[in-house]
Amino acid sequence: MPANSFSPRLAASFGTLEALTVRHCALPVRRPRDHGSGTVAGNVEVVILELRTSEGVTGWGEASPWAVFTGTAEANAAALERYIAPAVLGRPLAEVPATMAAASRAVVGHPEAKAALETALLDALGQRAGVPVWTLLGGLARERIPLSVSLADPEFAADLDLLNRVREDGVNIVKLKTGVQDHAFDLTRLERLRVDFPGLDLRVDYNQGLAPFDALRRLRDIEAFAVTFIEQPVAAMLTETMAMLATALDTPLLADESVFSSDDMLRAAQNRICDCVSVKIMKTGGLRSALDVAAIAAAAGIAGYGGDMFETGIAHLAGTHMIAAAPNISLGCEFYQASYYLEHDLLDAPFPIEQGHVVVPVAPGLGFAVDRDRLAHNTLAMREVAV
Fold it and tell me: I need a labelling partner for 176 at 20 to 30 A (CA). Which of 3, 6, 9, 241 fits?
């Protein structure tokens, strides 16, 4: 039941978009993390969007930017308040594609803000129709998604503590952030992980951290540890280097920063720069656009992985519904922050992780509600725009 497949009479009964409330929030994190391209410590900043309809339904969305990757919270809040809200308020709730097209015409870029809007639209529409969001995206491809947890603490001992904790919870996939310090440190950590956790599904992520002139030499050292994939070893603009590495290495190469849009994915497939791709709704600008990226990847024989930014459970849920409807996103997801990285989440119940898997919700909309007290406590600024 795609979002635009309702009969005109039924669609009209769903009401119109009456108000958008935009909250700029800061949420404390448990430990610092160093990703090479940037360090995260203290707080992460997100934008939470509350959408209300003329029928009294509330939908939630989240923009989760990172200044060194996609953008800033301030810019996304401004995009929603000043440009997107006037363009979409008063529109029918059921007309999700047309509403998203209006938002895209209103302001260029800001994919996180657009992802927040589409998430809120689909959440509200799913609640009004009595179906989960994945139904609106075409149907269910999987009920559970293997969870990956990233290790990026400057102190490896702290990462080992985290790993022991998540292993007790059934998690068996770990992505090690590499290229942050020196090559010897990366090899030492990989050896320790292989010795202490021999059955671990181990992946590495360079976040564009390698220089192209010696990337291949270093990555051949990494291959000795039988990692599942190597993520974005060099800068996104180095298309020819990515293609060379993908050809030269036995280990699959995963593209992240190289692929934001469907156009990027098409070029990546044509140039064979990767064997797999990280699909993130904050990069693509929404759930349906993420499904487009996954479909292009599938046509090229390129596997998908469910990536994310520094997110709360709201954005995690949006990504979960997207992956649930995407057969080609088969390498798991990294929706661990709400459970293992933030001091507290914004959902009114724990994000659904069981035995190392994310469980796809079956309740209407996103399937969870927001804890308004926690939301208020973490809000730095708020503005409502109404019809």
Answer: 241
